[in-house]
Amino acid sequence: NVDADQQQPGGNNLEAERRLRQLRRSADWRWLNACVGIIEGDPNPVEAYLSSGGDPARTLTASEVAILNRSSAFDVGHTLVHLAIRFQREDLLAVLLSQIEGSGSGVKRVPSYVAPDIAADIRRHFASTIRLRKGNFPCNFVTEFPTFSLPADVDELPSTVQDQLFTELLDKDAQAELESDPAVINWSLDVTLRLGSRLYALWNRSAGDCLLDSVMQATWGVFDRDNTLRRALAESLAEGGHVFYPRWKEYEQGHASFLQYSLDETQWEEDWNGLISLAGQPGTSLEQLHVFALAHILRRPIIVYGVKYVKSFRGEAIGYARYEGVYLPLLWEQSFCVRTPIALGYTRGHFSALVPIEPYRPVDGRSPPGPDHARTTFLPLVDRDRKMLPIHFLTESELGREESILRQWLDVCETEGGILVAQQLLNKRPLIVAQMVEEWLNHYRRLAQMTAPFRPIPIQDYSSEGDTDDE
């Protein structure tokens, strides 16, 4: 009996191993590799699973947990979303949520996902460019001013590959809403065709960080994953609040009186404190004041093209959206700021970076004088009815001088069709951003090579009679 008792565990182990081998043979390894990819931070097996039609809401079974054999990481009933949250894989979580939410965005392949290590270096570099201004207006500011654009090489890709690139890069829902009648972007053929200044809405994370993500994408081409820009924003409003507050209050009082209501000082201070609190909480949506403050941190204008009315999911107008317009760093000296703006789009509760495809050559057709020559795109300062975009947070004494103020802070000109536009200079990309863009673009170049039609080698290549004219 003793011998039998001693042999029993070994027999059980052999049986368990045999059963495990059977389970492994019949397992869906594309799904299991995606689970492992989440905890290891590797997007490739996750994208392979989703691209093959895998269900992002699929749950792990007991037998699959046994195969993976990592009880500290995997539990029965876990989905990819559970794993992404547990192991703080924010980029992968955004991809999964974009599919589950049914936004039609599918698998996303933005530059920072294709080159995550370079993107992390860019975020670290950005953090090193932030300084705090001393003196009467303690506000954070940046020391570098890149403007992100899509490379001109995108236009050289085959149409099928180009379509895939745009599907995986853009927020097609936001693009459609911004371009639908009445359009708020790309409504002028004068601007989009003659001046080559079409704008594209980049996809970003949707969990309350979209304003900060879109500002980072419009400048450095990455998300605010480390909350660096959010911290700079919260600190600036807390430290420089005594300078921001009077202008904010006067602006809001103007709106309140227009709507025939008023607040006492206690209520104004409560609203102000609420806005400061929002700035410091990752994942919380931000307001107009925060856009205004970000223009000061960036030391440059921000132009927001937005829907005029917020609509319900049934398409009914449920409120007026005030975001569209120009946000100038009015509290700085003009000499401390740059005149090249960035552009953002605003749809229902969501911000997107609006970026152009860089032009091959200047609009006038002349050759650039050197490699650092800035190419130019043009951003309308009027809506499709030729009504000037509002400048937010002007004081009463500044009202009525809007066009003059725009010309003080931006390089303003008119198109041949008489449209008032701001010039956006696209300087040479910072090297680290260029490396990320190149790595991202190489993915689609390889796709183009794989999908190119097969060309048989001419038979003359194998002849021994030397070269021919045909070759």
UniProtKB/TrEMBL annotation:
Its EC number is 3.4.19.12. GO terms for biological process: cell migration; cytoskeleton organization; positive regulation of Wnt signaling pathway; protein deubiquitination involved in ubiquitin-dependent protein catabolic process; protein K29-linked deubiquitination; protein K33-linked deubiquitination. CDD domains: OTU_ZRANB1. PROSITE patterns: OTU. Gene3D superfamilies: 1.25.40.560. One of its GO terms (molecular function) is zinc ion binding. It catalyses: Thiol-dependent hydrolysis of ester, thioester, amide, peptide and isopeptide bonds formed by the C-terminal Gly of ubiquitin (a 76-residue protein attached to proteins as an intracellular targeting signal). It comes from the Eukaryota. Keywords: Hydrolase, Metal-binding, Protease, Repeat, Thiol protease, Ubl conjugation pathway, Zinc, Zinc-finger. Residues 199-357 form the OTU domain. GO terms for cellular component: cytoplasm; nucleus. It holds the Pfam family AnkUBD. InterPro entries: AnkUBD, OTU_Deubiquitinase, OTU_dom, ZRANB1_OTU. Belongs to the peptidase C64 family. PANTHER family: UBIQUITIN THIOESTERASE (PTHR13367), UBIQUITIN THIOESTERASE ZRANB1 (PTHR13367:SF28). This is ubiquitinyl hydrolase 1. It comes from Callosobruchus maculatus. The lineage of its organism: Eukaryota, Metazoa, Ecdysozoa, Arthropoda, Hexapoda.
